[in-house]
Amino acid sequence: MLRAIAVRAGLSRSGQLVAPSVCRAMSSTAGDSNSLVLTEEVGSKGVITLNRPKALNAINLEMVRLIYDAMKQWESTKSVVIVKSVGDKAFCAGGDVRAITETSNVELARKFFSTEYRLNALIGSYRPTYIAFIDGITMGGGVGLSVHGKYRIATERTMFAMPETAIGLFPDVGGGYFLPRLEGKLGLYLGLTGFRLKGRDVHKAGVATHYVESKNLAALEQQLLATTSGAEVESVLDRFSEKRDAGAEFVLAKQLQKINQCFSAPTVEAIFQQLERDGSEWAQNTLKLLHKMSPTSMVVTQKQLELGGKMDLKTCLKMEYRLAVHHAIDSDFKEGVRALLIDRDQKPRWNPATLAEVDPARIEQFFGPLPDGDELQFEEEGPKASL
């Protein structure tokens, strides 16, 4: 399910009449209802809907381009852009990594990751108010479509995770930027283990900005489309959303102290040692989980988050583009996808198989310049922009 992008639930209209000012007109930007991405213009508002429910709205290169094009078209004309999905299982379960690994096409990997990361950067600096309804599975690429926006609305059906270390990759799409900015070492814990947060816990962790019951999403959308100012948007969201401390205690509340202590160690090997020293049931279960992950991916991830915590989003995405292309050339990535998503034997053969065998020089190469010097650039930058 990793980066197989799941698209999250289309909000079906309630039977209520919509005020004339909120009447919806389908734009022609993304074509007809069979398009993988649907766009609507509602006055000064725009709505983007992921429309690939059978694939859990997993995003491919075509979808990324359609979303990017719609957002660029609306950048100077819309005040609010809402992103949501069709179905009730997933907002977006990830990116279509099988297409990249099955063909071993590095050029395809370059195109996908560069286009996706440019979209992530656009979301992070978008002038219109960006609101993502992360109703359902939100993993990998789905996180990239939401977490850098101003507002992320979770529901009781939301399931958030960044499980890339299980397929020999790393938590990309700006994971190196947002994960270190969660409380304490929670982000590193989530990035290394792929731990899944559900429902209210996505809000309590700070991944979502608001929590709204899924039955109320249609009404929330209608009211957002009728707003006339940023202050009104904030007021509508606050009216629909629960307070962050509502409901049961955060699922990891009792473990946060241990997470901060163990995952503050300077290396992944030292994290393992801290967990072994702790010896609690939680620590043993965490070790069991980490032993399933690619050793190389874990070391890359730890360094990625350490560096990303001091970077702005665009600089972090440039770093992650280097990592992604190097992984497409030579890493555990292809083997991880084979074991978890293709053959599904759940028995990846990592190379190397243990942390002790991970070569520090090879890790440095992942972060180093690309062989042909073709680094990630953004539209507003000159040809010599560099990390």
UniProtKB/TrEMBL annotation:
Enoyl-CoA hydratase/isomerase domain boundaries: 46-367
Entry's Gene Ontology molecular function annotations: 3-hydroxyisobutyryl-CoA hydrolase activity
Pathways per UniProt: Amino-acid degradation; L-valine degradation
Lineage top rank: taxon: Eukaryota
Subcellular location, principal: mitochondrion
A single cellular component GO annotation: mitochondrion
Entry-linked InterPro entries: ClpP/crotonase-like_dom_sf (IPR029045), ECH_dom (IPR045004), HIBYL-CoA-H (IPR032259)
SUPFAM superfamilies documented for this protein: ClpP/crotonase
Compartment annotation: Mitochondrion
UniProt GO BP: L-valine catabolic process
EC number: 3.1.2.4
Reactions it catalyzes: 3-hydroxy-2-methylpropanoyl-CoA + H2O = 3-hydroxy-2-methylpropanoate + CoA + H(+)
Record key words, sorted: Branched-chain amino acid catabolism, Hydrolase, Mitochondrion
Family: Belongs to the enoyl-CoA hydratase/isomerase family.
Role this protein plays: Hydrolyzes 3-hydroxyisobutyryl-CoA (HIBYL-CoA), a saline catabolite. Has high activity toward isobutyryl-CoA. Could be an isobutyryl-CoA dehydrogenase that functions in valine catabolism. Also hydrolyzes 3-hydroxypropanoyl-CoA.
Name of this chain's protein: 3-hydroxyisobutyryl-CoA hydrolase, mitochondrial
UniProt source species: Anopheles quadriannulatus
